[in-house]
Design goal:
Elements (H helix, E strand, L loop, with lengths): L1 E3 L4 H11 L5 E4 L21 H4 L6 E4 L5 H12 L3 E4 L13 H7 L4 E6 L11 H7 L20 H22 L9 E5 H7 L2 H10 L16 E5 L4 E5 L3 H10 L3 H5 L6 H6 L1 H12 L4 H11 L3 E3 L3 H5 L4 E2 L3 E2 L18 H7 L8
Parallel strand pairs: 1-2, 1-4, 2-3, 4-5, 5-6
Antiparallel strand pairs: 7-8, 8-9, 10-11
Helix pairs in contact: 1-6, 6-7
Amino acid sequence: MLDLTRILAGPYAAMVLGDLGASVIKVERPMKGDDTRGWGPPFNHARQSAYYLSVNRNKLSISLNLDRPADTQVVRKLIAEADVVIENFLPGTLSKRRIDAATLLTRNPKLIWCTITGFGAGSSRPGYDFVIQAESGWMAITGEAEGEPMKSGVALADLIAGKDAVAAILAALLDRARGPVAAEDRRIWISLAHSATASLVNVAQNALVSGKDAKRWGNAHPNLVPYQTFAASDRAIVIAVGSDAQWKVCAMALGLPKLAANPSLATNAGRLKNRGKLVAQMQAVIARQSASHWMTVLDRAGIPCGEVRTVREALKNVDASPLYGVSPAIPGTVRLPPPLLNEHGAEIRKVGWKIFEGL
């Protein structure tokens, strides 16, 4: 797989495919490489940024100047023997340098070409996650109800688009394995904007069904009560009641038998109607004890719950390292550390894809 991407969505998709066993060559511009190499601090001892390290393991790196004919020839040779190309250049950037997807797909009948865009095949707008979150409706539903619109703490639009790219590429590889596939059917377009709006799922459906725009609910849920954070005496916890049966058990576990027996609260619709009073009574009780106390009580009762942890706390029992990042969430292996810029350039120029035979 030839990775001609930079920043997050494309490199992440290429890394996931690398985790699954793909041989990935990352092509970067000379001197600076992928933009995220400079997105720090923090940097490690080799001056690699944490951001870059997070999405570039299981790859080899070559630095090429696509304005030099000799270097574009190297790219074309690699594409001629590749199974997959993934790129996120603005429209026309590659074709002006004689790297034309349509032509190369015709020449290489096994090639699958995935382009990740910000706003679709017909748009030249650069696609940055923050902008996508703003325009996709995400920020309008994220944050406190009376507060400002808020983005997610993780660049989820990029990551979801990257996962969409992985799914589409794997589907195309499966389709190809069944027999010859026309060039146009081996051409994949992924849009961050479309991935983001598709990910609105139930929020989008609420708006479509009701005809009303979605609102911000902070850490509460528009359709379920109680399903939100509560402040224990030492830290915040989450209680996520997903059924009427769970609600009665939850109320009893919290020592609120009157709420459990109240017929107006027996259904989720009733609890939605009485959200304010119900949540206030729960909060008053929960504030008297520590988070660990309530975790023990609610876990014993089978109620979905959790402490609000810091990132370092969340990573404490996870297979992760400062070099390789968090281990693959899907079945995969970590074989290669994120490469230094042009670390394998000379050998790739010399032997091409055969470089993987010795790894």
